[in-house]
Amino acid sequence: MAPLARPPYTGESRRLVIAFDIGTTYSGVSYSILTPGEIPEIFPVTRFPHQGLVGGNCKIPTVIYYNKQGKVCAIGMDDLGDFEPDEVENWTKVQWFKMHLRPKSSATSDAADQITPLPPDKTVIDIFVDFMEYLYDCTRKYIQETFPNQPDFLASMDRNNAIDFVLTHPNGWEGSQQAQMRQAAVRAKLVPDTDAGHARVHFVTEGEASLHLCIQRGLMTPEMERGEGVLIVDAGGGTIDISAYSRNLAAKKKNTFEEIAAAQCFFQGSIYVTNRARCFIENRLNGSKFQDNIKYIVNAFDTQSKLTFRDRPLYVPANTQEKDTKLGMRNGSLRLEKEDVAGFFKPSIDCIVDAVKEQRRTAKKTISTVFLVGGFAASDWLYNQIEISMKSLGVKFFRPDSNVNKAVADGGVSYLIDHSVAARVSKYACGVSCATRYDSNNQEHRQRSSQVFHRLDGSQRLPHSFGIILPKNTKVSETKEFRQSYNRISANRSDLRHLRDAILCYKGSSPHPRWTDVDKGSYSTLCTVVDNGKLINTSKYVSEGGYYIIKYDIVLAFGLTELTAQYAWKENVS
């Protein structure tokens, strides 16, 4: 299929869209200048300070170096050869910091043990701020150098608040992570700390950004054209993101897709292969004369040898000429047997294959095509092992060229300007904890009869009920709202002045979660809805019971990649 034919931009004034793909191991930036009546183009930023191959790579290492005072000394480089050795000796290298933003749950607890700790005086938001500032400075400089005949372009965009930012993130990131990333964008001075400024920061999952990129590049199979499902396996540095889509043949817009299964996120990216290798190498060399070489060897495995592994022993540079055949040291390298290296990869490979099977089982349409994208996809071993399993499933399996794998930021821009995904599938059941009416005919209610309490209106109630507003695995279009009605009563009207409700999501294994005090650890707060003092104006006094009551709806919208929640009520209705 030919690359996406994008229509001209229909906005009334020029805008600039900038997408940051801050990956666990590598990061990139892309942008598009939107001019009314012109067809938008997407460009990567390909020049960064201290870049080894100027103009040839659109990604830089996601690395920051701080001195003892907590000041940024270098960003986006692994090789510090441009600095004096005495200068860098006391610097602290911070890498993989993105993983510290992950949702805190039992599913991610194992991942926490394998992540490099942050410096004691820095939070993950502090580091995101420093990295965003750097990316934004580099982007502005790049645009100014690329369009020298428009010296006032960026200034005019700033004056008119006409710059939109897209931040990509793993499928498993939620409202809390998005809120923290938006906070970092504000502190990095990408946007002002206002409602209008916040609205210029957009989010898209890495899986959905990759789909947009595949569509943009014309990577469509005949099966996809017919409306069958396609699975995007985004194998990155930290996470494996699994997303399933199908083309909506009934949509007016040709390349409109819908999610057909709840997206998944697993902490089995390439850094976990490195961590397994680290444990193996440490066990072999600790206490030997090569102990001081372990750090060098692990880094060489991570940056040089890992992606070159084939079906044969792997030789990892060891920074020594000493030999020890029993330990595998020869010719300046550490020999690792192919069975051992294959073992480092196996959990990640098994994770992907199992996830593909699960998505095919739960998807609302047949999935016949799988795309493997992301930086980790560059591993031939990973690709070949997965391909064997895909053939046995009768699935067409593709690995786009390296330019696609390096350009998730392109997909981030495409998400905002092309808007190819019109519906998504809810990953969790979402709702609120409330008091439900007691039903003596319900066995579960009878088992909780000791918790029954009487409200002022005379009704019997049970606490800790999970009032589901949006069920799990529900197809959600961008315009669809989900709502449930609730009420509050109190003898004192002032008690109803400022209401707030925590929007909960359930991540446990129960298909029908009913009580928030059962499997407590599987509930987490997505956000909190807060009344601004207007609901009390709708209160009515019930003289028979001597109480005030307010009635309202809680409304959730999940059509976009960011949750919105609000109260709704009726006013002046007789």
Please explain how this structure is put together.
The chain has 574 residues and is of the alpha+beta class. It contains 15 helices and 29 strands. The strands form six sheets. Strands 10, 11, 12, 13, 17, 18, 19 and 23 form an eight-stranded mixed beta sheet that branches. Strands 1, 2, 3, 4, 8 and 9 form a six-stranded mixed beta sheet that branches. A five-stranded antiparallel beta sheet has the order 21-22-20-25-26, with no helix packed on it. A hairpin with an 8-residue loop joins strand 2 and strand 3 (43-44). Helix 3 crosses helix 5 (175-187) and helix 9 (270-285) packs antiparallel against helix 10 (294-305). The termini are far apart. The mean pLDDT is 90.
Radius of gyration: 27 Å
Instruction: Calculate the terminal CA-CA distance, rounded to whole Å.
Output: 59 Å
| Oligomeric composition of the shown chains | single chain
What does the largest sheet look like?
A: 8 strands, mixed
What level of helicity do the residues show?
Answer: 25-40%
Give the number of DSSP strands.
Answer: 29
Shape: globular
The low-pLDDT segments are none
Structural class: alpha+beta
How large is the share of residues in beta strands?
Answer: 25-35%
Rounded mean pLDDT score: 90
How do the strands and helices of this protein lay out in sequence?
Blueprint: E1 15-22, E2 26-34, E3 43-44, E4 59-61, E5 63-66, E6 72-75, H1 85-88, E7 92-95, H2 109-112, H3 124-146, H4 153-159, E8 163-169, H5 175-187, H6 195-198, E9 201-205, H7 206-216, H8 222-225, E10 229-235, E11 240-247, E12 257-259, E13 264-266, H9 270-285, H10 294-305, E14 314-317, E15 329-330, E16 333-336, H11 338-362, E17 367-373, H12 380-393, E18 396-398, H13 402-405, H14 408-418, E19 421-425, E20 429-437, H15 443-447, E21 453-454, E22 460-470, E23 475-477, E24 482-490, E25 500-506, E26 523-530, E27 540-542, E28 547-557, E29 564-568
Parallel strand pairs: 1-8, 8-9, 10-17, 12-19, 17-18
Antiparallel strand pairs: 1-2, 2-3, 2-4, 5-6, 5-7, 10-11, 11-12, 11-13, 14-16, 15-16, 19-23, 20-22, 20-25, 21-22, 24-28, 25-26, 27-28, 28-29
Helix pairs in contact: 3-5, 7-14, 9-10, 9-11, 11-12
